[in-house]
Amino acid sequence: MSSAFQFKATDSAKPAASPPMQNSSGSEGDPQIDDRKRKRMISNRESARRSRMRKQQRLDELLNQVTALQTENNQMISRIDATAQQYQKIEGENAVLKAQLDELTERLQYLNSVLHFVEDFSGMAMDIPEIPDPLLKPWQLPCPFEPVFGSADMFSALIV
Fold it and tell me: Quick one: pLDDT at residue 126?
């Protein structure tokens, strides 16, 4: 396994000592032709080295891009998880509020039926307000004069 040239580990462009090369015609070669071949081989080696360097540089750039995209992906996953948790929390609070609304509506209907019963048996005229149906008129609150309190924290999950 001998070759005309031996390469150092650094892939140097200089050839090590080598046996003299023979021309294909068998006669001794022209020194100018040998010099041109040697220069061409050196040029080809340099070109190959530059090509390998460009390839390695591109590979490094792609690896950096993969790392950056994985980091961005992990951040997005974290944000999605946080948003999903906030959604579930708000959905649970909404379910509790709906249950409370149903319970209070039922109590109000019961109290109104008691007032109607008292009105019927006492003969006194009472002013009994009609209970609005929140599903038919959601913009019409049962108690429109009560203020609705909130804080800026309520919307912090929505602003990202």
Answer: 73
